[in-house]
């Protein structure tokens, strides 16, 4: 119901679901090492003070972080093996 009036609400719920899948994939032994390295690189980029656009530029600084996270989750969602996705609690391909 809320997603009808607040489209951002459905996006936040999807981010939570994808975040749980990423955490499960990171801990899963069948996930390739390069995917885990990519996940770590994204987290380091988010925590790093060096960005494409500095975070002190309030709106624009956080927009590049949001784009990086969204793009990384999309790419990782395509690359994570189906066996890992199916083993996640509450997930399906």
Compute the average pLDDT: 82
DSSP helix fraction: over 70%
Secondary-structure element pattern, one letter each: HHHHH
Shape: flat
> Separation of termini?
25 Å
Which stretches of 5+ consecutive residues score pLDDT under 50? none
Structural class per helix/strand content? mainly alpha
SS strand fraction = under 5%
Task: Tally the beta strands.
Answer: 0
* Number of alpha- plus pi-helical segments: 5
How many strands, what sense, and barrel or not for the largest sheet? none
Short overview:
This protein has 93 residues and is an all-alpha fold.
Features of this protein?
0% strand, 5 helices, 93 residues, 73% helix, mainly alpha
Describe this structure in words.
This protein is an all-alpha fold and 93 residues long. It has helices spanning 2-5, 7-27, 33-47, 58-79, 82-87. Helix 3 packs antiparallel against helix 4 (58-79). The longest helix has 22 residues, at 58-79. The mean pLDDT is 82.
Spell out the blueprint of helices and strands.
Layout: H1 2-5, H2 7-27, H3 33-47, H4 58-79, H5 82-87
Helix pairs in contact: 3-4
């Amino acid at each position: 119901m809320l997603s009808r009036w607040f489209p951002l609400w459905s996006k936040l719920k999807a981010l939570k679901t994808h975040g749980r899948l990423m955490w499960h994939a990171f801990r899963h032994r069948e996930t390739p090492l390069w995917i885990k390295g990519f996940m770590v690189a994204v987290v380091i980029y988010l925590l790093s003070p060096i960005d494409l656009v500095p975070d002190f530029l309030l709106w624009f600084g956080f927009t590049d972080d949001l784009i990086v996270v969204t793009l990384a989750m999309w790419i990782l969602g395509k690359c994570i093996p189906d066996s890992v996705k199916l083993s996640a609690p509450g997930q399906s391909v």
